[in-house]
Amino acid sequence: MFILITVFVNLALSATFTNAIFPDITLHECALTKGCLRPAMCTESSCAFLVTWKLVSVKSENYVEFELRGNVQKVTGFIALAFSKDQRVGDDGVVGCYYQSSTNTVNIRAGYNDIGGKTTNFYNGPDEELLITDGENLGGTFNAMDGTLQCRFRRRVRPLDTVHQLMDLTSPNAYHLIVTRGVERKKDGFGRPFAGGESVSQRPVVITSPIYGSMTGIIGRGSAIAKTHGCLMVLAWVLCASIGIILARYYKDVWPNSGLLGERVWFQSHRILQGICVGLTCISIILIFIYCEGYSQATAYPYYIHPILGLIVFSLALINPIIALCRCNPAHEYRPWFNWIHFFIGTFAYVLSVPTMMLGLRMPAAGLQLQFINYPLWILIFFVIFQFIIEITLEIHGCFYYRRNKNKRRTYVLEIDQYQAAKRLNNARQPRPPEPEPSGRMFKYFIIGLHATVCAIVAVILVIIIAVN
């Protein structure tokens, strides 16, 4: 019974949002009978967006038949195509479509951007036949199951109304094609793209050229704010957190007679590095909330997982220094509890940051190139293996020198006791015995130098990849 109900609901949804007469937009005629614009990784079953065009004649007048298809994530979403003189959204002409749930139709509209390209306004001028949206195979559909919106329409090659940046498509006029997908339109125009929802052709296109091409070289614009978010997170967790954790776990007995800003070297270094990590994480979270205008709108798998993991890492990163501020005296009975809690929270946040960064490299806001290249992920995987090897090496090293350093420490405690006793007896100013340098310290110096160098190199490489992709 449940299966029958499920099938009925799915059929009802399909009937509600889909026009059965409308033929699907496909790839198989690309570069043969129509021009195409699509991502590099695009198949019939899986394609983030697809734009096609071909020249047709309607009543002895030239029109371009456009097809737009894309995942818009929500029922309120839209897909639009802008004709730009450069690769940036500016005062450009726009065509696109959106699903109108109140009338159960896909509306197709022409429009124009303002000079800054921040808002799009629908065209309501005198050229009533600028667009032809009714007729055989014209119109559109919306699939509520996977969030795919598609529409097919015809646009006059040379608009009768030349105002409002409607763009003359006659040859030799060439334009960069900018595909925009968003989750919510405005009342009088198309809205902002969602994260990663804007893609641009690498070269200008003569729409009315008789030679059709299939363009797969797409610049998926990664937002500068989103890129900054990613770069800061890499610096925080690959560079600062990695070195800070190693120092706190394996270098407490190193540099025993040296200080940094009034504290032991390992402690002050750990505190500074982890403080920078938390600060960069906070700035990064603020930036991405500004970019998304709140919480992420990503609903597709696996993109929606990244913000969830990111907020968990952020919360743990905030909690741990607060706990550290409340730490008790080293001799207090609850100090072991603090040590273990601080250790587990820090370790969990650090381990969780790795898959979070890996997912972040695949987020649409990072740009289409990062979505389809694998070497940044392999760099991260190499770094994870390297970090693991460093920790295992230091653990083995610590076990090897454990007895020798324990005996040194025991001898030092006896020397301190003798020093305190002599000081009480004669009040003589005797030099305090220096703490013993740990055995195997030269190897540990080499390891921390190697580790810090590799962390810095990996962080710089990933930052460059994110910034320039």
From TrEMBL:
Q: Which InterPro entries match?
A: Cyt_b561/ferric_Rdtase_TM, DOMON_domain
Please state what the protein is called: Cytochrome b561 domain-containing protein
Q: Which residues form the DOMON domain?
A: 47-182
Which top-level group of life is the source organism from?
Answer: Eukaryota
Record carries keyword Nucleotide-binding: no
| Segments passing through the bilayer | 232-251, 272-291, 303-325, 337-357, 377-402, 445-468
Residue ranges annotated for the Cytochrome b561 domain, each copy included: 191-395
Question: What are the UniProt keywords, alphabetically?
Answer: Electron transport, Membrane, Signal, Transmembrane, Transmembrane helix, Transport
